[in-house]
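Supplementary Data S3. Sequence and C-alpha cells for construct A.
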Amino acid sequence: MNFGRGPSVVLNVGGTRYSFSREVLKDFPLRRVSRLHGCLSEQDVLEVCDDYDRERNEYFFDRHSEAFGFIMLYVRHGHLRFVPHMCELSFYNEMIYWGLEGSHLDYCCQRRLDDRMSETCTYYAAEEPKSGPEGKGRRPPGAEGGKWLERMRRTFEEPTSSVAAQVLATVSILFVIVSMVVLCASTLPEWRAPENRSVEEQSRYTAESVREPSGIIEAICIGWFTAECIVRFIVSKNKCEFVRRPLNIIDLLAITPYYISVLMTVFTGENSQLQRAGVTLRVLRMMRIFWVIKLARHFIGLQTLGLTLKRCYREMVMLLVFICVAMAIFSALSQLLENGLDLGTKNKDYASIPAACWWVIISMTTVGYGDMCPITVPGRILGGICVVSGIVLLALPITFIYHSFVQCYHELKFRSARYSRSLSAEFLN
C-alpha cells in the first residue's frame, strides 16, 4: 500500500471495526477493499471510502455493518447468504458496492434474489464515477479531454446513451443487414454461374467482381466496419483489453477475410494456383456470416446470451463432459450389441465405435433422424436407456443456467434503462 502509515489498517464499516495487515489488502476478495492498496494520495482514498482518519489509519465506510459481517463470513468460509430479516435487494446492493455479484450467493439465495427482482422489477448495477455537480470540484487536469473521450466511447459502445449513439447504431444495423442480403444473394445459382468458367476467365472475373454492384456494396460495408472498429480502438481506455474482448475479436474475424481475399486476388493473378486459391477465397467470403454477431452490440437478448455463456462456462463444460462420457459408454455398447457379437444379424451402420457415436448424439438429444437405428432387441433396450439418460443429463445444469440468464438479463436491462434516462436528460437540456 502506497498511502498511510503503520503495519495494519482499520476498516470502520457502520461503526464496526476490522483490522487487516497491508499485505492482506493487496489480494483481498472484495474489490472495493483491495483498491485501497493502490491508493497514492488521500484524494484517491476518498474515492474508495467515505472518510479517512490519518492518525489511526482508519477508513470509514457508511454502509450496513451487519450486511458487511455476512460478507466477511463469505471471505473467510466461502459461503454467502442473505442477512435474516433484511431485504434481498438491499443486501444485493451492499454486495455490488463491495464488488460481489449474484453468482457469489449460495444457490438457495440466488433463487430468492431472482424471484424478488422479477416481482419488483428493480435492478442494480455496479457503481460508476459520479459526474454531477458534487464531482466538479475535484476534476483533475485534462478532464475535458477525458470527458470528450468518454462521450465518444459511450456513443460507439452504448446505443441508448445519446441520440448520436442511436443514429450510429441504426446505420450499423443497416450495413449488417445489407451485407447479409448480399452474402445470401451471392449463393444463388445465377450469381454462382461465373464459378464454372476456366481459370483465365475466373481470374478476369475475380478482378472485375470488385467493380460490380455487389462488389461495390461489399467494399462500402467493409469500409464502414473498418472505420468503426478503428475509431472504437482509438477512443478505448485500455487497448489490450479492447483486443481481448470477444465482440472485437469477432469484428476482426469478419473484416480481415475481405482484405486477405483482395490481396490474394492481386498477387495470384493468372497463376495456375488460382483455382486452388478460389476455394480459399470462397471460404474467406463465407466468414462474413460473423457480421450477424455484430448485432449483439445493439440487442439485449444477444448480449444476455453471451454474458450467460461467459458466467456459466463451468456448467457448460460439465454438461459437455456428461455427454462425452455417456457417448463413449453407449457407443461402445451399441457397437458390441449390433455388430460385435456373432448373433446372425449384423447392423452395418454400427460397424465401428466412431460410427455409433453419431447415433448416440442424435438419441441423447432426442433428435432421432432415423438414418441409424438398432435392429436387435438388446440394442433397442440400450437405445431406450440412452434416450432417457440424455434427457436426465441435459436437464441437470439447465436450472442454474436459467437463473444466471435471468440475472444477466436484469443487469443489462438496468444498464440500458440507465443510459435511456441520460438520453432523456439530454433531450430536456
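Construct B, processed identically:
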Amino acid sequence: AASYTDSSDDEVSPREKQQTNSKGSSNFCVKNIKQAEFGRREIEIAEQDMSALISLRKRAQGEKPLAGAKIVGCTHITAQTAVLIETLCALGAQCRWSACNIYSTQNEVAAALAEAGVAVFAWKGESEDDFWWCIDRCVNVDGWQANMILDDGGDLTHWVYKKYPNIFKKIRGIVEESVTGVHRLYQLSKAGKLCVPAMNVNDSVTKQKFDNLYCCRESILDGLKRTTDVMFGGKQVVVCGYGEVGKGCCAALKALGAIVYVTEIDPICALQACMDGFRVVKLSEVIRQVDVVITCTGNKNVVTREHLDRMKNSCIVCNMGHSNTEIDVTSLRTPELTWERVRSQVDHVIWPDGKRVVLLAEGRLLNLSCSTVPTFVLSITATTQALALIELYNAPEGRYKQDVYLLPKKMDEYVASLHLPSFDAHLTELTDDQAKYLGLNKNGPFKPNYY
C-alpha cells in the first residue's frame, strides 16, 4: 500500500537487471530507475512537512560538518528517510544505503535517490537472501570504506561486526534508532565486543516520546484500515506491551470505541495501563474472545502457535514491533494449514476445520509494511539522527569511549525547538531569578540526563 508500481511491473529480480541513471552510473540496485521522477515528487511532498530537517540542512550546509564522512545506512527507505539521506549528503557525507525491512521500501523513492547519485540497494518485497545481499553491497566496496553506521534494527551493525571485523574496528560511530538494535548494542557492549562508540537514539526523548508514541497512535489505525477495512467500535483488541508504542496504539483504539486489553511483564507499565483505564490480562485469558491481536514488545514468541490455535475465526493478527519475531509465524507454515493471499500484505491462514486467522505483513512491522507513517513525526527522529551523526563524527578523541551513549539533552531540546515554529508556538523564557531558583541555565538543558 505504501508503494505504487506500474503495470509493467515484471517478475525479474532487480539483481538481474542492468540499470543506469541519467549520469551513466549503475552504482545502485532498485526496482525501476524509470520511477525516479515520481519518487522525486514524493520526496518533495515529504520535505514540506519536515521543515526542521530542511532548516538544519540550510544552517549547516555551508560548514559541511560531515565532510569526509562515509555513512553506510540501513533504515526504512521512504520519502521521509530520503529527506534525511539527502540532508546528510548536503552536509558533506557520502552515503550507501539499504533497507532494514523487506516490505517497507517505496520503490519510486529508491529510484529517485539512485538518480540523485546515492548508492541505494533496496526494493519492496526482497527475499531474505536479497536483504543480506543489499547490505553486503553497501559495505563491501572497492576503494570506499565506511566510517559511520546509521542503523535501524541492528542488522547492518551485526553484519559488519561478523563479516568485516577490520571495517568495524575503524568505524568512528554507530547511530541506532530501534529498541531491537539498541538491545543488540548493549549485548555487544556487555560482552566487551563493542570497539566503537554508539549513540542510542531510540531512548533519546525526541525519538521515544514522539516517534514511538505519536507516530504509532496515528499509523496503527491506518495500517489496519488499509489492509482489512475493519471497524473498531466495540471490537475487542489485545495489545501486547504497554511501552511507548503500546501506549500510542491503545490510545488510538480506545478513542474509536474499541474494548482494549493489555498484556505486560513490567509492573510499572502494567500500572500505567490500569490507570489509563485498560484491563491488564494474560494473553491466554482473552485469546478466545478477541477480534484483533497487536504485538509491540520488542521480544520474541509473544504470540505462539498455541495462542493462534485458540483464536476465534477471522481474528486479525499483526505486529508493531521492529522485528518479525513477536508472532511465531514459522509455526504456521505446516502442511495442515492453508495460506491464502487475499491482498497485498494480507494472508488468511486456514485451519482444517475452516477457521481463518488474518495475518498482516507476515508478522512484520505493520505500519511501514502496509501503510505510511506521519511525515512530521519522522522529521523529529531524522533530525535527531542527523545531529547524533554530526556529534559522533566531530567529537574530539576520547570524548566517547567504546560504549553506548544517549544523545546529550541539549541536542534533544534543540531538535524540539526546531519543530516549534510549525505550530507557531512561543516559548516562555526564564528570568535570571527563576533560573537561579531552579538551579538551571536559562538556555537549558531543562531535563536531567536520565530523563
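Residues 1-8 have pLDDT under 50 and may be disordered. The chain has two domains: 14-203+374-414, 214-363.
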